[in-house]
Amino acid sequence: MNASEEPQDRVEPGVGPAPGEPARFRPYRHPAAGWGAARSVAGLLLGRAVVDGSRAVMRMNHENGGFDCPGCAWPDDTKGLHLDICENGIKHVTWEMTRKRVGREFFAAHTVTELEQWSDFALENQGRLTEPMVYDPASDHYVPIRWQDAFELIGRTLRELDDPNQAAYYTSGRLGNEATFLYQLMARELGTNNLPDCSNMCHEASGRALTASLGTGKGTADLKDWESTDALFIMGVNAASNAPRMLTALADAYRRGARIVHVNPLVEAAATRTIVPHEFVDMALFKSTRTSTLNLQPRIGGDMALLRGMAKAILEQASGDPEALDRVFIDRHTAGFEEYRALCASTPWEEIERQSGLGRADILEAARVYREADRSIFSWCLGITQHEHGVDTVREIVNVLLLRGNLGREGAGPSPVRGHSNVQGNRTCGIDHRPADTFLDRLAEVCRIRPPREPGLDTVTTIEAMHDGRVKVFVGMGGNFALAAPDTRYTQAGLRACELTVHVSTKLNRSHVVHGRRALILPCLGRTEKDHRRGGIQSTSVEDSMSMVHLSVGMKKPASPHLLSEPAIIAGMARAALPHSETPWEWYVEDYDRIRDTMARALDGFEDFNRRVRLPLGFRIKQPARELIFLTPSGRAEFSAAPLPDVVPAPGTLALGTMRSHDQWNTTIYSDNDRYRGIENLRTLVFMNRDDMRERGVREFDPVDITSTAKDGSTRVLHGCLAVPYDIPRGCAAGYMPEMNVLCAIGDYSTQSDQPIMKHLKVAITRAPEVPAAPGHPHAAGR
Ligand SMILES: Nc1nc2c(c(=O)[nH]1)N[C@H]1C(S)=C(S)[C@@H](COP(=O)(O)OP(=O)(O)OC[C@H]3O[C@@H](n4cnc5c(=O)[nH]c(N)nc54)[C@H](O)[C@@H]3O)O[C@H]1N2
Ligand SMILES: Nc1nc2c(c(=O)[nH]1)N[C@H]1C(S)=C(S)[C@@H](COP(=O)(O)OP(=O)(O)OC[C@H]3O[C@@H](n4cnc5c(=O)[nH]c(N)nc54)[C@H](O)[C@@H]3O)O[C@H]1N2
Ligand SMILES: [Mo]
User: Region 160-183: what's the mean pLDDT?
Assistant: First the structure.
């Protein structure tokens, strides 16, 4: 693509609410959570047009009843004694419980072309969807449609496809297990494995790496292990914003005397101090607890080199210190050790320092902490996975753990932090575009269907297939595909090229106004709401980051009498598309215990599902690697031996990572603030190292142009971001998703995980020529 054709995007004022106030940047110097969070929570409960907010929050994440927080996937407190909630979970619940409604009058008043001009914040801020709507091309409005007619439209369109693979069924990770099971059953009974999901953009790398190394794609450590470990290595996660309940675990660990090492190019709030939100005495006395004993700031993508350095140090030490390695464990349970040892020996320290961006002393210090701990846990999130070499890096984490036998015993092991509240459960229950044969064999036998065997499409390949006409129908079970996926223009053109787009949603979002030739919005119950079916009030189950499965029961009156539950919507679509199906769709959704009975027979680890899920804290899915049973080809835990990738930016370029602010949930933006990074009223920014700014003649809040260069050499430009000087290593930059998704080319996905490399875009940043000022932005105020 040459310069004249290159896509040019401007993100003013971004997808947020565009406040009238000028942008501000004042570094945050307070503990995480604490009174800032408390004030925010009080405001949410009192101010956000919330019905029953406080009562609902008291019912969240409680043993024996209540609903699971629809926020992150951090597990519930195992003690089940105190209120285990956080500011961002409350934001999320109150967001779902708003009193605002977006009904037929709203759609009658606005054409879709008009709504396209609205900000994403404004779209979601209209409130909860209340009835099914269909796009009417003649008037360019969404108009009401009866549920049965909507199902018939979907069924007819699917039946008329030449090939079932012309449809793709996306899942965002909050769908409950029962709906998930029905959804994948429908897709497979129709004849396709086209099940793209948000995990394709999230933790695909973790799943693939852990499967290759340990034989199962999940972490092995649980909260009890966190409570007894000696050292925690927290890598590439902004816990204070994205998994806030981890703060409690970090503070507890610190008080016990455990070591806590944070590895992140940014020193995030969780790497400082916290006031544990439910400890009221600490709150009253402003007593904060440290949540870190060592902070390391590698360059973007430098984690693998750091880990290699730690391994090298441990191995070098082993000659004089036999306890440095757990030889018994290595001999008994692992394969590939000698090769890995040789690789570490032959990787020069200079290379490790250059690639990690860290000095030797820092790396040795991390290795020392690791060596001195009897039990260690490594935890990570997107800072590790959304890279070209995400799989190699997660495998390197496992290599380091294996050296000291940190697996299969209390207080030790890998512990990825998942994203959406049930993204892990979605995979367990069959959302997988590359299903294992053993899974399909059992599904075929139990559900009496003939599932297709060839792999289906993932997120990136679905977008490509929509573009070139191979996929004509897109069904989104939750989520906001138009905005969450990479290469915004390309993705949106793909959605527009579809014959039919269907979105099952709670709120209006971009994916509804960027639609196919025909389009449906199907409104569903949220997790907080009562789900009345013929068999009574229903519950659904979810699985957290640590493989605990428990029930979630809504307690609120539904936002509208016309909403259906997700299982009921799936059953309606399935019956319309498969009129002669022998699957008892209608019977299943009268009482979800019936779905669970089938799941108990079809899924590994779900034996006696209905009984066990009703135990006070639910149950933990067996994790064979935890028992030192490795379902790998060698039957052992496998060391990997991958060379270090070159992650040093070429001269003049920077590595740019996209991430979340404190006040957003993926594509849902609550405000333009990012409290812990000291930002107010600004989302269209780029955090840069001061020296990189100086070198480019860029001052604080100067507008800059960001040009990304894709693997295929094509370029994309984003205008109008304001530069913010930040404590970030040289050569690195960071900004917010989804505004920056325009910079991530569709072809820029990892060859290891197929994940878009959203944390590692190659960019050039230049001072922008003077642009007309936009209201509410600093350069408008004469800067
Ligand atoms: N409130 C709230 N909670 C959420 C979400 C939300 O949007 N809002 N989203 C949910 C979802 S779906 C997910 S997947 C998770 C995401 O949780 P996170 O992984 O915390 O998400 P990001 O905001 O993308 O932040 C990534 C972190 O990685 C760091 N990082 C960037 N590049 C590198 C690198 O090369 N190495 C290292 N070590 N670190 C790096 C960034 O500085 C940042 O701290 O959170 C979940 N929880
Ligand atoms: N550049 C960049 N892009 C990224 C990322 C990044 O770090 N950088 N992160 C990626 C990651 S980790 C993820 S997980 C994806 C997220 O991608 P998605 O999961 O697709 O996006 P969300 O913003 O979480 O979806 C929000 C919408 O979900 C709907 N919704 C909310 N609750 C419910 C419910 O209970 N049921 C149903 N059916 N719908 C509901 C609402 O309509 C809301 O508008 O984004 C990815 N995109
Ligand atoms: Mo995610």
Answer: 97
pLDDT band at 779 (very low <50, low <70, confident <90, very high): very low
In order of start, what are the domains of the chain with their CATH numbers?
3-28+649-781 (2.40.40.20), 101-202+422-607 (3.40.50.740), 207-416 (3.40.228.10)
Residue whose C-alpha is closest to residue 502's, from 461, 472, 464: 472
Tell me the whole-structure pTM to 2 decimals.
0.94
Reduced to 3 states (helix: H, G, I; strand: E, B; else coil), residue 665 is strand
Taking CA atoms only, the protein residue closest to ligand 1 atom 2 is 242
Q: Which residues line ligand 2 (CB under 6 A)?
A: 124, 172, 174, 198, 201-202, 382, 386, 419-420, 477-481, 484, 504-507, 509, 524, 526-527, 566, 658-659, 666-668, 737-738, 740-741, 744, 758
Number of DSSP helices (H) and strands (E) in the chain, helices first:
31, 34
Q: What is the 3-state secondary structure (H, E, C) of 46-95?
A: HHCCECCHHHHHHCCCCCCCCCCCCCECCCCCCCCCCCCCCHHHHHHHHH
How far is 184 from 186, CA to CA, in rounded Å?
5
Residue 266 beta carbon below 6 angstroms from any ligand 1 atom: yes
Pocket test of ligand 2: the residue of 463, 487, 506 to mutate, having most ligand atoms within 8 Å of its CB, is 506
Atom of ligand 1 nearest to the CA of 242: 3
Q: Which single residue is written with the structure tokens 């290469």?
A: 487
User: Ligand 1: which residue has its CA nearest to atom 24?
Assistant: 659
- Output the CA 359–ligand 3 centroid distance in Å: 32
* Closest residue CA from atom 33 of ligand 1: 383
Res 265: pLDDT: 98
Q: Whose CA is nearest to atom 40 of ligand 1?
A: 383
CB 307 near ligand 1, within 6 Å: no
Q: Looking at ligand 1, which atom is closest to the CA of residue 92? A: 1
DSSP single-letter state for residue 736: E
- pLDDT tens-digit map of 550-582: 999 998 999 999 999 999 999 999 999 999 999
- Please name every residue paired with 231 in a beta bridge, in sequence order, or none if there are none: 259, 376
Residue 64 pLDDT level (bands cut at 50, 70, 90): low
Question: How many CB atoms lie under 10 A from the CB of residue 578?
Answer: 18
State the average pLDDT over residues 154-160.
98
In tens, the pLDDT along 195-248 reads: 999 999 999 999 999 999 999 999 999 999 999 999 999 999 999 999 988 999
**Separation of 198 CA from ligand 3 center, angstroms?**
6
Confidence of residue 83 (pLDDT cuts 50, 70, 90): very low
Please choose from 307, 382, 760 the residue to mutate so as to test ligand 1's pocket, defined by most ligand atoms within 8 A of CB: 382
Give the other-Cβ count within 10 Å of 660's Cβ.
17
Share of the chain above pLDDT 70, in %: 91
Supply the Cα-derived Rg of the chain in whole angstroms.
25
**Contact in structure between 16 and 669 (CB atoms under 8 Å):** yes
Nearest ligand 1 atom to the CA of 88 is 1
- 63 pLDDT higher than 60: no
Rounded to an integer, the average pLDDT of 313-325 is 96
CA–CA separation, 681 and 687 (whole Å): 15
Ligand nearest to the CA of 731: 1
Distance CA 219, CA 207 (A): 9
Mean pLDDT (the chain, rounded):
91
Cα 175 to averaged position of ligand 3 atoms, centre (Å): 13
What's the pLDDT band for 17 if we cut at 50, 70, 90?
A: confident
Span 301-327, average pLDDT:
97
Contact 656, 5 (CB under 8 A): no
